[in-house]
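Support request from a user on the community tier.

User writes: "When I paste my structure tokens into the form, the page sometimes reloads and wipes my input. The last time it worked, I copied everything first. Here is what I submitted, just in case something in the input itself triggers the reload:"
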């Protein structure tokens, strides 16, 4: 079932969200100082390409620096990546088939806003 959901997700919104995340990662890599944000954006971009069967968990060892990094991320790129998830969720929510995918998009908004201090793990 996860594979089927991921294939439908890929067609309906996964590719576009992945490209948005990769654009954010590329911008962060070009700016050199923001490479840690680029790594986080690339990691979450891959997650947004194939999200079903995975979940996001807090990293207990992240602390003050992750908080500062997340504030900087929101200013640099987080708000427009989160907005892309919201904009994608709206048309998906119109159809019955798209509702689970709209919910998945909305669940990705907090990760889009605050990516540092989070890990992506497989669901057993």
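"...and here is what came back when it finally went through:"
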């Amino acid at each position: 079932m996860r594979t089927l959901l991921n294939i439908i997700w890929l067609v309906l919104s996964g590719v576009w969200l992945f490209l948005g995340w990769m654009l954010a990662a590329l911008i962060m890599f070009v700016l050199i100082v923001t490479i840690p944000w680029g790594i986080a954006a690339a990691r979450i971009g891959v997650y947004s390409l194939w999200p079903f069967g995975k979940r996001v968990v807090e990293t207990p060892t992240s602390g003050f620096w992750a908080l500062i990094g997340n504030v900087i991320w929101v200013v640099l790129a987080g708000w427009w990546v989160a907005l892309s998830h919201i904009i994608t969720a709206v048309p998906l929510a119109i159809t019955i088939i798209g509702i689970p995918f709209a919910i998945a998009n909305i669940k990705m908004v907090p990760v889009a806003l605050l990516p540092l201090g989070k890990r992506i793990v497989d669901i057993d």
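Agent notes: The reload is a front-end session timeout and is unrelated to the input. The longest helix spans residues 64-94. The chain has a mean pLDDT of 90. Escalated to web team.
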